[in-house]
Input
Amino acid sequence: MPFSVLGVLARLGLTALATYSGQSIFPLAYSQATGCLIMGFCLALKEPFSRYYPPAYTALTTGFCGSLTTFSGWQLDIFKSWLNANNAPRSALHDVMDGVCKTVFTISLSLASLFYGMHLAKEVSPYFCAGPSPGRFLRNTVTVIAVCTYAATIPAYYLLPRDYRHQATAALLFSFPGTLTRYLLSHHLNPALPAFPLGTYAANSFGTALLGTFHVLQSTANRPLSGASCTILQALADGYCGCLTTVSTFVAELAVLKTTGHKYRYGLTTWGTGQVILVCIFGALLWGGNIEKDQTCVFD
Output
């Protein structure tokens, strides 16, 4: 629970920090790289983490890294590049180049960060001492603190300024449900096909479909939504979809699949499914004239 909340906060913070006039790198790249770096570090130290306290490993990888990185947001970024959603003065060829750049750059950066995290873990592993497992009292205390941390997102939504709701506090409410959905899908479906992580694929595809739907609702041309509705949709997009989908687990699975054929099949199928989903949901309505390229929502 708390690491899902922290992952969303870190992603939104890094994205806001990296969004400025004249930026050289698209903002989402920073959270993808950071999440994959930490994921690689944790993967290389899985044995001592699991020996000390298994939930700590799950919290850092599934909770924090999975929430810090987002597959659905990456897919929507690519699709907006094909469409030239910013209406930049460029040709169709440059639209294609922009989409290809975001695809290749994110995969390359994420894999490089993953392997560099593993390298860092090997360097510090001789000095890493897991120590004895925590006792029952400490485990129960950690559980109570975790639940209270997530429960605190409810008063934070109401007590912090209204401007923060669509920016952060509303998204925190949906962070853990998204992470839990992804965890359950992976836990039950991944063992079914060892050469194709079906659970992660389902989570990334379903989350991308939801994000496309929420983006459509935020971009209606004739019937703009209320400010409260826009805030909830943005919260679902950043919180639930952002935590439901993951790039860190996706590239970690690419790295550990046994054959090159399995890697390419899984990677291309997952990426292609995301783009096809957005064409069917967002593209069809946009080209039909029912929605706008940019969001028409006006937040409270």
